[in-house]
Amino acid sequence: MDVLVIGSGAREHCICWKLKSGSGTGKIYAIPGNPGISKSGQCYDLGTGSGNFKDIADFAFEKQVSCTIVGPEAPLVEGIVDYFNGRGLRIFGPDKRAAAIEGSKVFTKQLCEKYSIPTAAGVTFERTQYQKALSYIESLNEDDFPIVLKADGLAAGKGVMIPETKQSAILDIQNCFIKNAFGNAGDKLILEKFIRGFEVSVLCLCDGKNILPMALAQDYKKIFDGDKGKNTGGMGSYSPVPFVDAKLYKKILEQIIYPTYDGLLNEGIAYKGILYGGIMVSGNEPILLEYNCRFGDPETQAILPRLDGDLLEVLVKCADGKLGGSNLKWDNLKSVCVVLASKGYPETSSKDDLISGLDFLENSRDVEVFHAGTKSAGTGIYTNGGRVLSIAAKGKTFKDARKKAYMAVSDIKFEGMQYRKDIALKVEEEI
Fold it and tell me: What is the pLDDT of residue 361?
């Protein structure tokens, strides 16, 4: 069964890597792909925006692709699934209406309110209500901070701000509404109460009727150790999450995930693909932070290496509405993923820096290197901005997996390389 993967990040590289090990996988194509993916599949330099949907579908038809798998959120929110369905082509992912769960935070907030799904208290302002938003901030007490500001639409992982003071909040609102930092994604802004606790990522496979949770992971959003600095798209992750016990896991599913899926069905939305819940646990009670409509990045790089089975088989079942009765098997190993980012990330993004050390790790049995912001030039691999590489390792213990991952990190060099040194440190065993 030949497959096409849409996207160019470490998430897509990891998906291709896992697909390759499946007994039913034939040729792997990627649009646009990256240098890492090109070693296990064929990459084609096509765009992934709505203006390219016809070209992508034509490609899938020409290559007789059996299933297309969409990695990033933007094509999903823009309706690539609807377009493929209209052409009679099998595709894994939610349609445009369902993808609003990530494409519009206001939509998700309203859905939660309607179906009594626990989430942070908040208020929404439109761009035309700029002065009202400022007045709201002024009405808050200093002990109401920090607060959370969320741009309504897609903002490349940078639309969530957590100002610590009134002045910072005012500047963030100005940045969104006046300086137009997020474009149309910032036409609406949600101001939410800040919830303290720990986060966990719950990715679920969905076929329009059935929902099947995957292994849990935890993501690290801040750029610096100790959760300091700016929010990023994710600087690392690990799986499983040992401090989520069976009782808490049941709460997360029964109070948040399942009611959301039932609510979507009640709204006439048959959700297919990945439903990814970002959950904050505060006082042992789960609260929804956000939903995403696709595989997480970097959670995917920590979760999929632990999957014991054929990924393509289960994704096809989702696309065909035949997930019922399926089960997932996971190994008992610990998985750690460390992200290497370019100089200046996330504020700016350095490019064209030579990456060394990749050849040394190419045939490692214990570590996988997933490409993201990379490009080929001559015989070398260079940075192409943003998050550059994901280093994923497994071990019998988190201590072992961390050691393998960070030893691999030490072999890789490029100008201004940034990475966190505390990924999975808090779950490292005392042995």
Answer: 83
The answer to whether 155 touches 182, Cβ cutoff 8 Å, is: yes
Q: How would you class 79 by CB atoms within 10 Å of its CB: exposed for 0-12, middle for 13-18, buried for 19 or more?
A: middle
| Under 8 Å between Cβ of 411 and 366 | no
Q: Does domain 3-93 have CATH number 1.10.540.10?
A: no
What CATH class has 198-320? alpha beta
Rounded to 5, what percent of the chain is helix, strand, coil?
A: 35, 30, 35
Residue type, 359: D
Residues 313, 228: Cα–Cα separation, whole Å = 40
pTM check: above 0.90: yes
Residue 271 and residue 263 in contact, taking contact as beta carbons nearer than 8 Å: no
Q: Quote the tokens at residue 352.
A: 């064209």
Q: How far out from the chain centre does Cα 401 lie?
A: 22
Which fold would CATH assign to domain 121-193?
Answer: Dna Ligase; domain 1 (3.30.1490)
- Residue that has been written with the tokens 């006046």 in this structure: 178
Q: What is the DSSP letter of 252?
A: H
Residue 304 has pLDDT above 60, yes or no: yes
Rounded Cα–Cα distance for residues 15 and 368 (Å): 12
Phi, psi dihedral angles at 280 (to 5 degrees): -100, 130
pLDDT digits (tens, 9 = 90+) for 148-191: 999 999 987 778 899 999 999 999 999 999 999 999 999 999 99
